[in-house]
Amino acid sequence: MAYDYDLFAVTKTNRLAEVVISNPPINLITQKLFGEWMALAEELEADPDLTVILFKSADPEFFLAHFDVELILSFPVDGPAERSSDPNPFHVMCQRFRTMDKVTIAQVEGRVGGGGNEIISNMDMRFGVRGKTTINQMEVPLGILPGGTGTQNLPTIIGYGRAMEVILGAEDLDAEAAERWGYLNRIYAADEIDGKVRALAERIASFPVEAVQFAKQSINNAAGPLEEGLAEESFLFQQLIRTPEARSKMQKFLDTGGQTRDGELQLNSLVDQLKGP
Questions:
Q1: What percent of the chain has pLDDT over 70?
Q2: pLDDT reported for residue 106
Q3: Helix H segments across 4-88?
Q4: How far is CA 157 from the centre of its chain?
Q5: Quick one: CA torsion of 160, 89, 105, 183, rounded to 10 degrees?
Q6: I need a labelling partner for 177 at 20 to 30 A (CA). Which of 47, 111, 198, 262 fits?
Q7: What is the C-alpha to C-alpha distance for residues 156 and 147, in angstroms, rounded to an integer?
Q8: What CA–CA distances, in Å, run from 208 to 18, 83, 85, 198?
Q9: In degrees rounded to 5, what are phi and psi of residue 145?
């Protein structure tokens, strides 16, 4: 994979890719940045050598701003609005982060708003900085609404009433509230977040690839009917227990103290011994 972009720097280490956004002065989603987001999403999705993708910003004050309002004003409005059953390009791009067989993580150290927030709402995990990370959906005061998955994702993630507050109130949501509401997985001090999030990303990237991929797929199935999700979970489990890697890892777990009293009291340590080949 080439990963040749002007506004993204992509670094791969083993099965982890770190993507750093840089579109000064505020990481506004301009036409060029949007085009690169779409191309990057496709390239990341197709990369067989990745398990985890960590998204960061080169600017600690701005993770990702909203969609370029000047660009929205240039959208054609001559005829009446038309309903389409096909997702628009922004929706397609966002959905890739949700459905690709890689774990997607946003490390949000500063502000994220509008379309930028809609992008990260499709990622698997979001982490922020205590007293600094700020989230905003600013569309309604402009006379529009979040049109890039926001009205559909936020109620699922934070609940109906809170989604109404964030979208209709259009006020800044601070890191502490976002963590309490479940939008941010965790918040850290500014000098901690790099190490903490990177360690988690590397940990996940060290686990058996198929197990990570199938686990993400099964969690996503929870959005559908329970019976279908349970049936698919069972099928995916049955596939995994037949893989040589799973059988080797399970045996190693037993050989290194799993299912003993002393071993189970230090389960994290036992799991750490299973990382890698």
A1: 99
A2: 98
A3: 31-46, 69-73
A4: 12
A5: -10
A6: 198
A7: 16
A8: 20, 43, 37, 18
A9: -145, 165
Placement of tokens 């993630």 in the chain: 157
Distance of alpha carbon 17 from alpha carbon 36, whole angstroms = 16
Structure tokens belonging to residue 205: 């990237």
Which residues 6+ apart lie within 8 Å of 139 measured at CB?
66, 114, 145, 146, 147, 150, 167, 170
| DSSP class of 140 | G
How many other CB atoms are there within 10 angstroms of residue 168's CB atom? 12
Question: pLDDT by residue (tens digit) across 235-250?
Answer: 999 999 999 999 999 9
Displacement of CA 129 from its chain's centroid (Å): 16
Measured CA to CA, the distance from residue 267 to residue 247 in angstroms comes to: 19
Contacts of 51 (CB under 8 A, 6+ apart): 15, 16, 102, 103, 204, 205, 207, 209, 212, 213
Burial (CB count within 10 angstroms: exposed 0-12, middle 13-18, buried 19+), residue 51: buried
Q: Look up residue 255 and give its amino acid.
A: D
Asked if 27 and 56 touch (Cβ cutoff 8 Å), the reply is: no
pTM metric for this prediction: 0.94
Angle, helices 31-46 vs 89-99, to 10°: value is 30
Q: Which stretches of the chain score pLDDT less than 70? A: 277
